[in-house]
Amino acid sequence: MGLLLFFLFMVLLLSGVPIAVAIGLSSVVVIWLADLGIAVVSPNFYSGIAKFQLLAIPLFIFAGFLFERCGISERLVRFANLLVGRKKGSLAIVAVLVCVFFGGISGSGPADAAAIGAILIPAMIRDGYDRGFVAALIAGAGSTAIIVPVSIALIIYGALTNTSITTLFAAGAIPGALAGLCLILPAWWISRKRGYGSRTSMESDMGLFQAFREAFWGLMAPGIILGGLYGGVFTPTEAAVVAVFYGLVLGFFLYRTLTLKALYEILVEASNASAVVMLIITFAGLFSWTASTLGAMDAISASLLGISDNPYVVLLIINLILFFAGMLIDAISIFYIFIPIFLPIMGRFGWDPIWFGIMMTFNLAIGQFTPPVAVNLYVTTHLAEIPVEETFKAVIPFILAMIAGLVLLTLFPGITLFLPRLFGMS
């Protein structure tokens, strides 16, 4: 029955069925066939989302939409462009820097890629950049949003493993910066080699100080949210409320870019996005419960442990599994499917759950812009008005650079655990 569960899921997934439906339908069919009691579906749905930590997800999604509609992304791009200066490849560097920073507000890869891509993709194309290169770069840079705090993916991981979300946020800061650096280096080198950015630049009639003043309140957002978290002023869920309130203040009183009509539209968009995420969570939770009840998770864990006693060999296998899974499935579903398998392995080798969670999330970030199912690429290619196939060659250097970063995080856990230890969290 365990094999049937995974077989049905893969058949539905490869048939083009939406992932939430594929996960949920395969679970319900196997529950019925295995006589596990179809009545468990309803309470399992409720228990899957009735967690205080998960309340932060729709709130952070709402906050991300608020900040984007407030004009924060445009102000950040203008300031970063003036800060970096006019030179070959400067807009490529700006794209990565702003994506990493905005990821600390949105927490979502596709949202990050869409918000920054809408501004920078047309500007970079006008500046002489190849459309495929631009779409690949911003898709990769947008993926850093699930690594840096306040990552929705880390909230899910913390809720599933009973790990401190605040500690996970602290641990994600340096790896998030490392991911940005991994993308900046090939982006700058390719831009210089091909002469990208040598035509014009983003025009701005304001000076650096004025651009800083315009972007100041946006720059303060991650500091207020994370400062309150690390200072013990509020919990991650309360931080999401603070983020929403801060966005409302910016939009209505400081920048005055929001209206009641715009707020209603944002609420609708955020509700739709939150519903999709929470639906995946409920179905993925049911899938995980079904597989665990059937004993499939324990069997897979035992099989992995039986391959080798060398922790590096097992880590390599785990990372390969995650890499290929990330090419097909979203990060939330992967957490629910694979964490029950990996928990016994983590216990066996004594791996730190904070380090493992960041390593896992970093790996899944690569999947967000790795074909064939690369959600960020579909967002950016739509903005660049090109078929997604046109980015396949351009995205390879960024995938390889991120894999190099993943190797560093895997071999040197201290990179991840430095800040948690500095703050006395680990």
UniProtKB/TrEMBL annotation:
Q: Does the keyword Cell inner membrane apply?
A: yes
Topology within the bilayer? Multi-pass membrane protein
Task: Indicate where this protein resides in the cell.
Answer: Cell inner membrane
Keywords assigned by UniProt? Cell inner membrane, Cell membrane, Membrane, Transmembrane, Transmembrane helix
Please provide, in alphabetical order, the Gene Ontology terms of the cellular component aspect for this entry. plasma membrane
- Transmembrane segments in this chain: where? 46-67, 88-107, 136-159, 165-190, 211-233, 239-258, 270-292, 312-342, 354-374, 394-419
One of the entry's Gene Ontology molecular-function terms is: transmembrane transporter activity
Q: What is the protein named?
A: TRAP transporter, DctM subunit
